[in-house]
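ugh ok fine here u go
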Amino acid sequence: MKKIIFFFIFPFLSFAQLSPEVNSLYQELSKNERYEGKYIGFSGEESKIYNAFQKIDILASDDEMEYIASNGNTMAKAYAGKILFGRKSDKFLKIYDLFLKNNNQIKIISGCTGYDSFLADEIYRRVFEEKNVITQARAFKEYKDSILTSKTLPHGFDKDILEEFKTETKWNNSEIDSLLLKMEKAILKDENSSQSLVELVCEYNFYTEQKKPYYKNLLYFEKKYNSEIIKQYIDYCK
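structure:
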């Protein structure tokens, strides 16, 4: 009887730190084992999982997102990590350190394509790609300002359509560079960091032609994984 009682109260104890609304959305989010983009499938239908993620982003506090990122399944952790990053939360690096220690495999679905990756890899990739978002946000603002101040708009043009293309970010490029440096130092400090993650660091920095000061830390991983990508970046930084 004690075991039965414990079984029924355990879910309540596990997610007592979530409000009823957030917990309900979290349960919906956790039904799926894959990370989905906004649109999926050949028909480009809206993902119900992604919509639940957006609602959580609106309703949940940083503490609740930290709780989900620490205790949820891998897919929920990925959404929570990206929410904390998007909010520029001071909890983000703490959560990323946790992801490094539990870099579980995750299936990604975006549009009609999918691939297998790892939790820490995907969060690192998201942070690096924020530079593109910053560029897009700047371009959108300039375009929006020019539209809103123009006196010669096309006949029938609806200014509300601008909201569909709205791009915003709380970050700037120097802040992203600083955050990436902290994340990369944490990655290379951990001798258990996966080959895919270390190679991703090298590949992205090589692509942007950045010589980072920690390149000597890569010598251990080049020897451990015998990776040509890591070796190329080390040679570039010398």
